[in-house]
Amino acid sequence: MASDVVLVIGGGPAGLEAARGAADLGAKVVLVEERDCLGGTPVFERYAALTHGFQDAEEVMNRLIRDVTAHPSIEVKLSTRVVACDGEVGDFRVALARTGDGASETVHVGSIIVATGFQHFDPGRETQVYGYYEYPDVITLADAEAMLKAKKFVRPSTGLPPERVCFIQCVGSRDRQIGNEYCSKVCCGIASKQAIEIRQQVPNCKVYIFYIDMRMYGYWENEIYWPAQEQYKVNYIKGIATEIIRKGDKLLVRGEDTTLGRPMEVLMDMVILSVGMEPSKGTREIARILGVKQNKYGFIEVPHEGVDPVATSVPGIFVAGAAAGPKDLDDTMSMAGAAAMKAVAAVRKAAVAPGRG
Amino acid sequence: MHGDGKQAEGIPRKERVFQRDPDLPLPEDIRERVFELEEEGEWIVQRVPEPYVEVPTKYGRPKKVPLQHTWHHKSCGQCGHIPGYSTAIFWLHRKLGLAYDDPKDQTSCTGWNYYASATSNAAAQAAVAVRNFAAAYATGFFPLIHCGTSYGHYKEVREELVKHAELRRQVREILAKLGKPLVMPEEIVHYSEWVYAVRHEIAARRIYDCSAITVTVHPACHYYKLVQGDAIYDPDIYGGQRTAVVTAVATALGAQVKDYSTWFDCCGFGFRHILVQRDFTRSFAVGRKIETMIEEAKPDVVLTHDTGCVTTLDKSQFAAQVHNRKVGVPVMSEAQFAALAMGAHPYRVCQLHWHAADYRPLLEKMGIDWREKWQEFEEDLERIRRGEKEYLTWEDVEAEIPARHFLQVS
Questions:
Q1: pTM, entire model
Q2: Count of A–B CB contacts within 8 Å?
Q3: Which residue ranges form the domains of chain B, and what is each CATH number?
């Protein structure tokens, strides 16, 4: 017998919005989250302001979380993992296991939305020349977010405010040598947003961004990119840094200024690596469990991305957000809405004509 | 061996200990294709002989390093400019009782031709490589490459041969004229990987105290920047974030390895600059490397693991002295340093008299009486002058080492 329940896997922005959307459309929703709290990467990594609109990330996520937890049609299962799945559209049986006490159960659902997200590229894996695991003052975008949120943007080695900070773009993205040829889409915007926040919190600090191209999609151009330069005096330098080394108590950033066409060496107090997106461990795991195809990078493959951006290789299983590849929050929320609609449609079609979701 | 390691309190940051995610896809392992091509009848794969040591590489994959029965692919630059380099490698084998072959029919890899003059072509370069591999295979001993250029170049050749059937056909035709089979070693192994693999055995046989010796390490570009996947990265050395080979040997010997800001830089040799822009090489070696090391680390010795690096860092100091630059730090391979620590003769074995920078303060600090050793070496030369000997042999070398330090050579 077909089930009218929609299972949402992942409690980050995509999963929350998909659950809310599906429930608002009248479906019963089970939302499974591996961690013991909702909110996903923005909460877990302690994001400061959202890149688009500079809204406080915690406030935005809390509103979303409240909507979901208060919704009468949504059952939230925290600290719970999907461990097995069989069946077909309209009639999936999904085994769940709770971390901690190991309790297990099987839920009967009609469609599934995968919203297991991304993880930040680990610069220790490949780009060791940037010294992330060697020098405390080399940090990542995620580290910087947490510091900016805490309103304590200081050099980790000294606890003192920095005088010179630079971002290095495209760390783990657009890099054919390491196999991540894709652009992670959000890093240019986030770096520019953080550059503004640094200038706001540490006004005497000079901020530089070393980039290949600045990819400021849509309104980021006028909302972030130009204000960063004109209002906040952030320096954009076209050229990729090749390595970071310690020089006394500073960091020496070396690379090439491609505009001037010459090598450069600049001393910095802190370096922020604009690490890109990779599929999260959960995304890779759930793809195997559900039997949905992954692309060569490990993200969930969307066979007809241009016209059907939330379908997977398995009918009745949909994907939303960065589980399907690099996405900004706008894309993520749009996908979540589309996935909710498709998932609800699938259970209703299956109820009418089983096996034709 | 982690950076400065300082961390201010109260800073919201995660503990940074790099751990490779075993589920993440790794770049292609060319060795798998090497075996597949053997199954397809394209070539013979020479297996790493047992016993071997499995060492960790950049992506966490193990690499087999043979302990003995190795065919020593020597280096043109070592034999020509710093002969104590290769002699020290052989001496270590003898002292550890590990069998090796010092072949007479090895050719140059012609890598400098490839890098500097570009007068060669892919088939010619690859044919030279596989000719040497076939020569090793014929002896039953496994290639161990002394030279960083050859090592890096052969890894590039391996990749070209794996990926281009036409190139394999061309070199097979050339080899057929020589009457040799097309052979690809299971691993391409640099001598410094062997030294890394036996570093604890070396340390156990150390007779001089190295604890007061400050070392700076120059990792060779040809070793770890070309075909990076099978260079040794050890989680215990630099947290697995830099190649471990030379540093691991120095620390095993008890020496103090100090960091300096230009560790990542080339020695100045470049892939071709020493041949086509020599003044640039000399200036770079002195200004970017040696003077920086002296200023930041005050080393007693610079250790590295490639022909070009030793010669460039060492001999560039000679010209700089004329210009009153602050230079004067000895440069040698980690094999020479390890051999010295084990009691090798600084002249008969390590042949430090071929080196330009003054090595004698280092020897004194290690407790080696260089005056006495030099006197012995001069007596050797006198014997040769008198016609009693044509040249020095291992008998002359091994007679010098106190008996308690001998191991039986197998």
A1: 0.84
A2: 93
A3: 30-191 (1.20.1050.140), 208-373 (3.40.50.11810)
